[in-house]
Design a protein that fits this description.
This protein is mainly α. 73% of the residues lie in helices and 0% in strands. About 4% of the residues have low confidence.
Length: 231
């Protein structure tokens, strides 16, 4: 009899539990439904936005390639629609400045690059790249004080193009006839971490041109061959 009572109690308890769950679902189920719909809608929107971004990026890239092949690439590149992206506009301006530099319009190229840098001050990589290109485009024609100020900022430790800016400092020292200072700076650059092979090669060639010893590879030099044993 006890077993029958226990079984009856269990059945009643289970029924009550189901009733409570049903009531809770009727009262709060719409919240769970909304949450599920929100997750699905969010995933669909992210996928749509990603697809749209890819489409816009491809269209912009195609427009840039077409502008580079135009009869007047400078004007065509400057007119490329950045589609709301300041970074894309800066890149197009850099390419336009490159076309100006190839046409011998170094000063115009430098001014265009400085304007592009000012437009992307919040992007340290694009900002510094545009300014470094401006220094390289202007060359010796840039005001020395302005060049030194720009290169001082670009060559701060941890800056995106620190080593390339230091290289341009060495180039400026050579142009000013300060050979010993240039050699000292080049040696300091060669001791820094992260040098690419092309940069390392350029620095060595600069030292050779200045009459200094090129950078020697680290580690022991080649060992002499042992003499053959006497018979």
């Amino acid at each position: 009899m006890a077993n029958q009572n226990d079984s009856f109690i269990d059945e009643v308890t289970e029924d009550l539990r189901r009733d409570r769950l049903f009531m809770l679902f009727r009262r709060f189920g719409w919240i769970a439904l909304l949450a599920i719909l929100g997750i699905v809608a969010g995933a669909a929107w992210r996928e749509y936005a990603r697809s749209q971004n890819e489409t816009r990026a491809e269209a912009w890239g195609d427009a840039v390639l077409a502008a580079q092949q135009a009869s007047d690439p400078v004007a065509a590149l400057a007119a490329v629609d950045p589609q709301g992206g300041q970074g894309r506009k800066a890149l197009a301006e850099m390419l336009a400045a490159g076309a100006e530099a190839e046409a011998g319009l170094d000063q115009k190229a430098a001014e265009r690059l400085k304007a592009a840098a000012a437009a992307v001050k919040d992007d340290p990589v694009l900002h510094d790249l545009a300014l470094l290109k401006a220094v390289m485009a202007a060359g010796p024609s840039m005001d020395a004080a302005e060049r030194d100020r720009i290169l001082a900022d670009l060559s701060k430790p941890g800056a995106p193009f620190e080593l390339l800016a230091l290289e341009q400092k060495a180039v400026a020292l050579i142009g000013a006839g300060r050979t010993e200072d240039a050699v000292t700076l080049i040696t300091q650059i060669q001791q820094k971490d992260g040098l690419s092979e092309p940069l390392r090669r350029r620095l060595s060639e600069m030292k050779i041109t200045l009459g200094a010893e090129p950078e020697r590879p680290e580690g022991p030099g080649p060992q002499p061959m042992p003499a053959p044993a006497a018979n």
